[in-house]
Amino acid sequence: MRITIIGSGNVATHLSAALKNAGHKIVQVYSRNINKANLLAYHVAAEPIDDIVLIDANTDIFIIAVNDDAVGEIARQLAGFDILMAHTSGSVGISTLQAFTDNAGVFYPLQTFSTTKELDFRQVPLCVEGADELITKTLEELARTVSNNVYQVNSEQRKILHLSAVFACNFTNHLYGVAQQLLAEHNMDFNMLRPLIAETADKVKQHLPAEVQTGPAVRKDEQTMQKHLQMLDNSPQLQELYRLLSQDIIKNTNGRNGDK
Amino acid sequence: MRITIIGSGNVATHLSAALKNAGHKIVQVYSRNINKANLLAYHVAAEPIDDIVLIDANTDIFIIAVNDDAVGEIARQLAGFDILMAHTSGSVGISTLQAFTDNAGVFYPLQTFSTTKELDFRQVPLCVEGADELITKTLEELARTVSNNVYQVNSEQRKILHLSAVFACNFTNHLYGVAQQLLAEHNMDFNMLRPLIAETADKVKQHLPAEVQTGPAVRKDEQTMQKHLQMLDNSPQLQELYRLLSQDIIKNTNGRNGDK
Q1: Is A188 an interface residue toward B (CB < 8 Å)?
Q2: Arch. (CATH architecture) of A160-253
Q3: Could you say which of A17, A37, B92, B256 would form a disulfide bridge with A48 (CB–CB 3.0 to 4.6 Å)?
Q4: Nearest neighbour of A248 by CB, restricted to B9, B127, B241
Q5: pLDDT of A172-205, one tens digit each?
Q6: Where are chain A's structural domains?
Q7: Where's the Putative oxidoreductase/dehydrogenase Rossmann-like domain (chains A, B) (predicted)?
Q8: To 5 degrees, how large is the angle CA A186–CA A191–CA A194?
Q9: CATH dotted code for B2-153
């Protein structure tokens, strides 16, 4: 397909590289920041532009990978072309595009992207949704050229998926950070925890999380929990976080015994 | 060394297998439950016992891998032998053993163990502490026979380490579970999230967590956070958890821009 990328952030960067590598032609890369457009366009052999009036209409799809709150405005500006447009956001409904065109879809990669880290795009779950069946089919076929994990997900499901990803990824990473700071404050290195973090994630590749829950809360080890809360006396916010997470674990397990 | 294992849970099981495989002799396995003693003793070619009076004094070390609140009582019962004893707990001080003997130490594996999953013990961080330098050296040498990651950690540091592990492992796994339940309630499969969880853990192998924090909170995307809080209207506890974690991320980042 001939593909136009709107955006130059992490999603735009990883997605356009994957599409290019799958044999598609990246026609143009649009960014408000021409330097960012130049850089990404250079890597995927596309034309960089920083103004929508420069859009080349000889394209099959606009992939809109911009901040959530900019999706509607971009759609409004692109509506005149009557070319298929798909946004890549977890939390924006397809309706935001449908306000401007019937030729709308969603192409949502459920992964955390950083400019500083490569990943295997074929493992990235791609969630597609089309305004009609033909669009859904087109997006699904496009998705399969870059990923082995393609799902049809409607806008309501996608919002839940995005929320659950905030818990499983963003909040999880923050807890890694809490742990790292606790160690740093006591002159210990984050390397000590890295094998534990890797193993914790590895366990849920085969198991459901509740099956492998460990720790003081699931054992209802009140003594250890009280000691930990005392240790956090100088960090009321972490103390509250500890209390809330422990309560939620206890509530979920209802007497099941955890591993050590 | 000739090693006696006190306990038959996950830590006892993984540790005795690693010690046996490193060429040490597991003399006896003690458990209050003779069936569990039998099973573990069978795997490591040791004698199973369920009564401390049956302890064979021809051993170099008692490794006490029992519940935290049973460590003191076991130490009291073993004190008469005047043989080196080391417990394996993150949250119990060395002083709990020193109440009964000077021949005391700690041999704490910082990892999450399940009976249902194998792991590479050589990657497990082992944190050792001795009541004197000679004991520390003995435990450190023993630790190096089974792990590449051996640390000297005193009791105060170990308590912090254990607390940080609760955040990085136990609480993290619970957040995986929250995400899985959100998906299940909306007929979506946990498989959709597994690549994201793996990548989130993978990122902090090279980076510090704060460097790779992503999501609505670090972007200060109020609109998305408000939408998510509304979606959790029927789960006040999760709503509070979402609010608290987001506040803590915002507090930690102070205006730093996150990746998408």
Answers
A1: yes
A2: Orthogonal Bundle (1.10)
A3: A37
A4: B241
A5: 999 999 999 999 999 999 999 999 999 999 999 9
A6: 2-153, 160-253
A7: 2-106
A8: 115
A9: 3.40.50.720
